[in-house]
Here is the input.
Amino acid sequence: MTTKKTCECRLCKQREEFVSQLNILRKHGLDDSVKYFEDIYLELMNIGMDNDVNKSIIEGSWPTADLNIKYARERYENRNN
Here is the structure.
């Protein structure tokens, strides 16, 4: 028998707590609130992941960091052309 290893990253831990809180809202019949908070949470997750990727690119640990920075600089330099 194998046990499923749960992810310990901050985003997964936050998601676990978030789902727990949504379940409380559902128990009280607050489905509109659940939808509202799910939408906000998805937006925050996307921002968080973008920030993590950007941080990795800047630090140079992203596999294509040098190319990403090179192309971003070229786009910036050519923005008015």
